[in-house]
Amino acid sequence: MTSIGIIGSEGRMGVALAAAISEAGQQHIGVDKGGNVLKLASDADVLVDFSSPAGLEATLDACVAAKTPIVIGTTGLEERHHWLIDDAAKDIAVLQTGNTSLGVTLLAHLVREAATRLDAGWDIEVVEMHHRMKVDAPSGTALLLGQAAAEGRGIDLDTASERGRDGLTGARGRGNIGFASLRGGTVAGDHDVIFAGDEEVITLSHRAENRMIFARGAVRAALWLMNQKPERYTMPQVLGLN
Fold first, then answer.
1. 90 is catalytic
2. Catalytic pick among 28, 81, 130, 206
């Protein structure tokens, strides 16, 4: 039986992860705020973290010290966090993603394929909606899908994205990738990637009905990651997509 450690075990995702781990026939242990992360990393075979960016550095340090692989599903990460992840991946296996849903992982693959085959005459818009309590925008999943589209087009997302349109913004930039973020209610996560061409539109969509889909995907990723060498990994690799 595999022991999977949960960072933020008392949060909403922590509770869902515990249920998904039990569902998979594995053991879960966890810590919440103020807990001993190093002890958790030492006791667990693999860690899963959906907590907050603020504690990521300490968590990575603990995992490196204990030689414990980690799945990071925390969103709202900054460039500094990615540097820390890259550094940790020299010593342990790390899988970082904006979304652990297996459906979203496949959606990103399809978005990349579509963007590869449809030229800049097809405008790409990423629309996402989440519950009213979500604090970051665009969502990590929206950025993941936007990045997939940018890779398909062979462009840099940072310089080719349009966000927060308001007022007299002027015409849409040809080949750019637009983002729109909606917040309200208890929506777990809805994402649409729209390819709008001349007189035709293609929409690739995913609807999350319950956060258990993220928990189950994270458990699958954690069990897969345990058998990998030190390196930085992604969800498509879990599904054998690249």
1. no
2. 130
Query: Is 39 tagged catalytic?
Result: no
The pLDDT of residue 163 = 92
Q: Which of 134, 191, 206, 229 is catalytic?
A: 134
What is the domain count for the chain? 2
The answer on 227 and 196 residing in a single domain is no
| 59, 109: one domain | no
Predicted TM-score (pTM) of the model is 0.83
Of 132, 101, 90, the closest CA to residue 236 belongs to 101
Q: Which residues contact 40 (CB under 8 A, 6 or more apart)?
A: 5, 7, 29, 30, 31, 47, 62
Which H or E run includes 66?
helix 56-66
pLDDT confidence of residue 76? 85
Looking up residue 126, the CATH number of its domain turns out to be 3.30.360.10
Query: Residue 37's domain spans which residues?
Result: 3-96+211-238
What pLDDT score was predicted for residue 33?
78
**What long-range pairs does 116-120 form, CB within 8 A, spacing at least 24?**
116/152, 116/153, 117/152, 118/195, 118/197, 118/202, 120/153, 120/174, 120/175
